[in-house]
Amino acid sequence: MVTTEATAPAATTPSEPVQRRRDRRRVNVPGGLGSLLWLSVVIVPVYWVLVTSLRTQQHFFVDHPLGLPTAPTLDNYRQVVDSGFDRYLLNSVVVTVGAVALTIAVALLAAYTITRNTSRFVARSFSVFLLGLAIPLQAAIVPIFYMITKMGLYDTLLALVLPTAAFAVPITVIILVNFLRDIPRELFESMRVDGAGEWQVLVRLVLPLSRPAIATVAIYDGLNAWNGFLFPLVLTQSPDQRVLPLALWAFQGELTINVPAVMAAVVLSALPIFLLYLIGRRQLVAGLTAGFGK
């Protein structure tokens, strides 16, 4: 005789999808308050700069600092553009693009060599790049000034490109080395089997796969080069070689009383780097989060 037993009911613990939905419904109050506080700290100064750049000099002292302009005007922007702003903008673009391109070219070759070569000399070379992070910019400005003068590059844009790229190479190499080490070794071996040389592996494999990391370091290095002030102050002199950070400092001296005009110059100088961020933000996020899921 066959007897049947009633099966026990399923466990009362909620399934995993139900538990996930419940977790999503929980409100993170401290996190939300912290986000609002951080957002206000970032947004309020930007808002003040924008509305101030649209005020006239007379209304700047009368209107509420955070209120909308009672008589908005674009005369401040027109005054900044007429003062040679396009020349300073072009100089900053040349210095930033030149420094970033030189930095990525040198750092990518160095990172590829470090990740693919296990010799002791290459390992010590990587230590030299790490040592470059410990050298402050202010400690090297006098030797750099001496070398640039001896090379005949003083008061030229190339005098800004070379030291800016040199100080950006260490951190760029470290970021690219960490990224290239995550590329599976089997991909390199398969290209070797197909007869690819070092340059072919670099161009056809490493360069496409490391695009997020390159975009990340390009934006990071570009931001530092765009905002650089010490090198333009020490290594250039004539107004024709002046870049935007130095031009803002000059605007502050020439337009000491006209605060709205200075704020208009700040807005115009920040627009290119803001557009660069909008264009490369997806690559930037992908590069910053690469390897977090491992």
Tell me what the structure shows.
The protein has 13 helices and no strands. It has 294 residues and is mainly alpha-helical. Helix content is 73%, strand content 0%. Residues 1-11 have low confidence and may be disordered. The termini are far apart. It is flat, with a radius of gyration of 27 Å. It is found in: Cell membrane.
Distance between the termini: 56 Å
DSSP, total strands:
0
Work out the helix count: 13
Structural class: mainly alpha
Element pattern in H and E: HHHHHHHHHHHHH
Mean pLDDT: 82
Query: What overall geometry do the principal axes of the alpha carbons give?
Result: flat
Transmembrane segments: 29-50, 88-114, 126-148, 160-180, 201-220, 257-279
Biased composition (Low complexity): 1-17
Domain ABC transmembrane type-1: 89-280
Subcellular location: Cell membrane
